[in-house]
Amino acid sequence: MVDGAVYSAGDDQVEFSIQSISKAFVYALAIEDAGLEKVLEKIGVEPSGDAFNHLSLHTDSNRPMNPMINAGAITAHSLVVSPTATADERTERILSKLSKLAGRQLRVDEEIYESELATADRNMGLSYMLKAAGIISCDPAEAVKGYVRQCSILVTVRDLAMMAACLCNAGVHPVTGETIIHQNSVRQVLSVMTTCGMYDAAGDWVSNVGFPAKSGVAGGIIGSLPGQVGIATFSPNLDEQGNSTRGIVICERLSREMGLHMMDVSQIARATVRTSIARLRAPHPKDDPDHAHHPDCEQKVVIFNMRGAVRFAGSERLARAVEYEFNAPSDEEPNAGQHADACAVVFSFRDVMSFNDVAKVIIHEVLHRLLSAGLTVIVIDPSAILHWGEDERNDCKVNHPEVVKNEEEARDLIGGRGCSSVASPDSW
């Protein structure tokens, strides 16, 4: 889980070789070391429809079709550290990264490595053809040695579950809180896992299971549902595509019974925003002379509450809700603008878990427009999740919103110390 909780059953401490599951994480390392632009020059992102050990290249550029087939994985390995690095240097970097993801020190099984290297003729042939095509610049034999070595790293199913959880947690380790893979790299990796991770069975997988995944011929499978859960299974029996037969059945059942298909609509965007109206009575003159009004004077406040993980749809819904409350009535919206006479606008982000970058831009623009119109704007943001920094303050030519920690502080700013609620929602 993204909070570090692990649920397991069966032989969860049995070690086995990671094999092709390593391809997803080495692809992320290649992006980190060489940059995404360079990686895309060398490796495509299209599903090949061929077996994992087939030489599938783009006809125009000779690039491997994707990093999840062997030709693409060898190329990705060659981009780790630098093109001039040795197999040992690349393996050391890969082992260090995978160990951080797993949360413990992993190791290479030398017996597996020697056995697989002795039968790596096909991969060696792929590597020399990649060298001839100008795709890799390092020694082809060194690239294969390093690739076979990365596939010989031993893991348990619990290790893989934690590694998958790092991917679904935007590259942040759920237990240590350390950012191990950059968020943009995670997006790229998960995208390719979705379309190519299960080889020529990728279409069936996306349709029936519906979350990014990667398999290995030792019998392991990892799955990662962004923002929710990392999944790992281990069962050595393989199907014709080289994927774990029982692992697929388990993942299909989990997806079906626990609603893990990424195309399932779990929350409608309009549930993210709630608009309410509060009426506040000003304090008695003896309590706050600077803000006091007639004791019977009431002030209207429009409150916008947001909750959950706010993305584009949620922030766009907020922008429309604000427009509805403060724009003039029209033929399409005859009831709009009923609360345009409010003395203040309050945005409560107390129950917001996160904003993505697009949501922050939209919300800052909404705040800027209200402030520019001369309205009093207060933001309840106890965790400083919106990050109203100096750049945003400087962008607002008129003023910046008052940021407070709770409703009481907001009421005091609006009506003065001792301001009381007359008719209000929730804690208002």
TrEMBL record:
Gene3D superfamilies: DD-peptidase/beta-lactamase superfamily (3.40.710.10), STAS domain (3.30.750.24). One of its GO terms (molecular function) is glutaminase activity. The keyword Hydrolase applies. It catalyses: L-glutamine + H2O = L-glutamate + NH4(+). InterPro entries: Beta-lactam/transpept-like (IPR012338), Glutaminase (IPR015868), STAS_dom_sf (IPR036513). One of its GO terms (biological process) is L-glutamine catabolic process. Belongs to the glutaminase family. Homotetramer. This is glutaminase. The lineage of its organism: Eukaryota, Fungi, Dikarya, Basidiomycota, Agaricomycotina.
